[in-house]
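Worked example 3. Consider a protein that binds 2-oxoglutaric acid.
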Amino acid sequence: MAQITPQQLALFEEQGFLPVGPVVSSEQAARLRLALEAQTAAWAKDIDTPLDEYLSVVSQWTNVWEHNAAFRAQLYHQRSASIAAELIGCERVRVFHDHVIVKPPHGGHTIPWHRDLANWPVREPRAVSCWLALDDVTVESGAMRFMPGGHKEPITRSIDFLNEAKVWGDREADAVTVPALAGSAIFHHCLSWHTSPPNATGAWRRAYITIYLDATCTFDPERAGWHPMSGRVKVPPGAVFNEDAFPTLGGREGSV
Ligand SMILES: O=C(O)CCC(=O)C(=O)O
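Given these inputs, the predicted complex is written out as structure tokens:
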């Protein structure tokens, strides 16, 4: 059974992003928040650092699924993988990596306008991210912003976050801010332009992001000079990614 309607697919193809909600229940979002709290407390303890201090410095974790059973179960969530496969238009998806991005109360930084593919050693632009809200995320707490249609523009090199900024001019007015309730998700194309502001509220803004590739995507070290996952690639350029670090998760229901 299809997880998204033809209208949702058409909207994704037009805009390059698609809010879908709820993808998991609010209870499951609460379970993931608790799991994250326990996991970050354990990581802070491992390095003998008070939790407050640790969380004031670290706000992003990659490959959380390898450390935590609740996130591993979420990674293998059939519905998210099916939606990703339907949006990409492939039979099976492979995980590139997951990550948690947290903007603490009255904290976090602006994540500048960027497109993901330019930073990944992946050849084909056949990938989507599932940005799952763990908290209710509002305009004020750091909701994601997208430039509709930007994914249709030619592939560009990566943006140097520290020294350059994407300037939209009059087009800035077309940018769309997408609030999300806990348990809902925003899927975005790997060539979609997106940004997010700091958190101006007293609440946490936590998101769990899974990056899904078409399982046939291939390794391209030329695309991104360095990436945290590059060291885990065991195949030559042009080959599909190795299963141990980049597992295939099935895909459209019925094709698993
Ligand atoms: O969580 C955020 O604010 C940014 C996330 C992002 O850039 C992404 O998922 O590609």
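Take a moment to read the result before moving on. The helical segments are 6-15, 26-46, 51-57, 69-75, 78-88. Residues 6-250 form a domain with the Jelly Rolls fold (CATH 2.60.120.620).
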